[in-house]
Amino acid sequence: MSKYPDPEKVKMTFYPMVGSVEQQFQNLLDMLLWIDVNNAAPKQVYEQLRDKYQLSHYFARDIYTVLFVSSGLITTKGGQCYLTTMGKIVLETSSPFVLLEIFEKSFAGVVGFLEVLRSKPKIKSGELIGTWYGLVKERFPKMQNWSRKTLNNQSRHRIDWLRTMKFIEIENGLFSLTESGWRFVLQNPPELIAIQKHEIIEQEKQLRKSALGDFKPFETANKIYSLRQSFARDRAFRSIVTTQYEHYCAVCGIKLPVPRGAYLAEAAHIIPKHSEGSDDPRNGLCLCRNCHWVFDEGVITVNPNKLTVMVASYLQKTDANPSIRAITKYNGNEIRSVIDIKYSPSKIALEWHSDQIFLG
Fold this sequence. Notes:
This protein is mainly alpha-helical. It has helices spanning 24-38, 42-53, 57-70, 85-93, 96-106, 112-119, 125-136, 148-164, 179-187, 197-210, 227-244, 289-296, 313-316, 322-328, 347-356; strands at residues 74-77, 80-83, 168-171, 174-177, 266-269, 284-287, 300-302, 309-311. It has 15 helices and eight strands. The chain has a two-stranded antiparallel ribbon. Strands 3-4 form a two-stranded antiparallel sheet. The model has no long low-confidence stretch (mean pLDDT 90).
């Protein structure tokens, strides 16, 4: 029996890199560089960790299996270890910001501490952990069964990494954001990092349910969503609308995929969000980026009765250069149909767009 177990069978916990808080990020980069140069077997990685940092085999194994493999920084192929694309980006940029986003996807709730400290600067450890746990356990249901010991260990590892990356600091027993931490949360709201799949699915359920009833063109005045819920709801709206058109632009018919599985397909609100348009999927059209822009600007609309493209008259009277012809040629064409008729664009929404946005 091998003394080097399958990484999939090692219990998942957020192990930190070795060294002091000040050393951990650099030690991580050093190990990534060593792996990139040597393409060593897992056994050799364990031995390198054990010998360089005077670790037990147990701890070396867990750093390898959790910090490197489970975080997605390295992968194994043919018995050798290689850096993933994200691992190479971390190594090449030496960026704490990149590493933070990777950790949040793999080790739930890391950025939640930044979210807490943004609103509650200079707080003690117990209050920080308690507030953080109350915030993230609803987002990540598996956390709800954590024991006190697990909570303390997991939160301590996350806090140490945030200190390592110089996002938070501790002074006189009080935690607060560093200058770079403040800069990060102001530029990148923590609520929007690594929205979980189950959060999007929950919003999809609500939006699909709304499509079964009478169409409500505008958001209910007293309905309030958190920033994170709003972002998950946007993702859900896009998923439903673009899937209904099989990722084809409803106007020009383009369908352009990229290798990572994304498409040049956007979910356009017929009654725009800035006019309080609802997220009911019937208030949506799948459009490419160009058609989305001309639709939002009122250069085109969709006839509410015939579901045909209408191009603004001023454009039809303009000298027909190639750019203009690229739009006017769709005048009178039927838009693409949805897969399920119950998600067809609402006549009420299209009438509103024709009256309020279309340039006529």
